[in-house]
Amino acid sequence: MPIAPSEVKWIDERTLSPWDWLYLPALWEGLSTTVRHMFSKKVTIEFPEQRPSVPPHYKGVHRLNRDEQGRVRCVACYLCATACPAHCIDIVAAPSPWPDREKYPELFVIDELRCIYCGMCEEACPVDAIELTTLYDLTGFSREEMLFDKEKLLAVYDYTVNKGTDAIRTLRGTLGPASEILEQQSAPLPNT
Amino acid sequence: MATIFPPEEEQIIELDVRTDEMLVSMGPQHPSTHGVLRLVLRTDGEVVSEVTPHLGYLHRCAEKIGENVTPIQFIPYTDRMDYLSGMNMNLGYSLAVEKLCGLTDKIPEKAQVIRVIVCELNRIASHLVGIGAYGLDLGTFSPFLYAFREREMILDLFEEVCGARLTYSYVTIGGVHDDLPEGWLERCSKFLDWFEPRLEEYHTLLTRNSIFIKRTAGIGVLPRDMAVAYGCTGPMLRGSLNREKGDPPWDLRKIEPYCGYEQYDFEIPIPPFREAPVEAVIGDAWHRFYVRMKEMEQSARIVRQALRKYETARGAHRIEPPRHLPPGEAYVETECPRGQMGFYVVGRPTKESVPLRVRARSSSFCNLSVTHEICRGCLIADVPAIVGSIDIVMGEVDR
Fold this sequence. Notes:
The structure holds two protein chains of two kinds.
Chain A: E1 8-9, H1 18-21, H2 24-38, E2 62-64, H3 79-83, E3 89-95, E4 103-111, H4 120-124, E5 130-132, E6 147-148, H5 150-163, H6 177-184
Antiparallel strand pairs in A: 2-5, 3-4, 4-6
Chain B: E1 2-3, H1 7-16, E2 21-26, E3 38-44, E4 47-54, H2 62-66, H3 71-79, H4 86-101, H5 109-137, H6 142-162, E5 171-172, E6 175-176, H7 184-207, H8 210-216, H9 224-229, H10 235-238, H11 252-255, H12 285-312, E7 328-336, E8 339-347, E9 357-361, H13 363-368, H14 371-374, H15 382-390, H16 394-398
Antiparallel strand pairs in B: 2-3, 3-4, 5-6, 7-8, 8-9
Helix pairs in contact in B: 3-4, 4-5, 5-6, 5-12, 5-15, 6-7, 7-12, 12-15
């Protein structure tokens, strides 16, 4: 789109006064701002020595919760695997050896490299078995190492509970986050 | 209105040295192209005669993925489009799906208020990166660090709300994921108290800095008609509008309010500005930068009002999302930090949980398409100044 000659505005560069030409006022203005920051409180932390505090519901490494008897709480319903947008959860269900449930996960593998830490598994779980912890510095040397199986996920549970960083947020019998919403909302659900 | 310096000086430069035409490839690993953008410059000496942007280095088939996952599962993918304003992206897609399902009027007031709070905070965070990185392009480092310090505080607030710092997946279909935690409102207003005086520092270091003005004023002038013709939106368009000529303050939050934006008292800053230096003309890089600065003030103002509104807001933070999408189509555009982000969702003829088609209208893509026009005839050193003032996010351009 060519510009019409009438639209062109000729401007001259600003002529600086002798005082401004020295650039001292500009220098003073900028430097005083930056120098003031040198004496203000530091906002950075020395990372490996100092640890940032993360909120309790931070979305970090997963864990599989244990129930009161130390068994895995998961009932192998596949809801988390279905909800996962990255398809990183693999479950193999088997008939449960315990009388209080039908199934339990024989294999429960989460690919931590594929996971995007969105927290949808946690939200989908009806028995509060899978949770995201506050562990955020997850490293490994190989891809195989980053496939977390059931034992490893239960170990994460033991580690975080012993360390006291992640309290068990929900207990058996109480309602999960999804049902709290239903309670609060007295109006009938919209037609779906 | 375009500005050209007096012709005699230009002729002197032209006659001084004899140069040949040369193709220079800038990017995709160039630090000032903001991600993986490749610009092929046809240069003659220092003067750029043609700029061709090459895109697609970050293409991740987001739209195709949207046809294979349920709307809730697609929310994390929208985070990764414009990764500097994930909340706004989440909101755009959520609104489109809600419109398709006829849920728009059923969203509780509390959810709407939380959405406004997080989206406006995210706008501030996104503009902070925009202006900080723009200063970095032009060779000043301090504002960048200060901007990231402020942004970090917003990210800390978001972390408390949703447990993530960049890819939030917080705004979701039917409301927002969680309610605001205890004491968050106080921390948020404390941040605003701290943040608003800090804006003056950026004005000192950038807006009024004579080097910054020389690098940006009168550079990359985008006439209003061209901006409209290319579909530019957001600060890119608003920097070219002129209130005195009767241009409307084009912002969807005012023009087609969503999420209850009509209940908030705020202004849309468009030129002319009293603070503009004499060298600056409407539509240049300086004005685009300044519009962003002004928008941060207004966003802080909206957040303050929303925080007050939250205390009396009724309803839950979320309603149950629908299990199936009805047949039909819905298109919603929202005002994101970089412009109007549109999401188009088509439901399958049979009731199913995955949509038939998802389309994202990206604001950065349209804004970038004007590069070759505004870069023509500028100096090579001005190309980063112009591209930086567009404030693109390649994740959104390529999707």
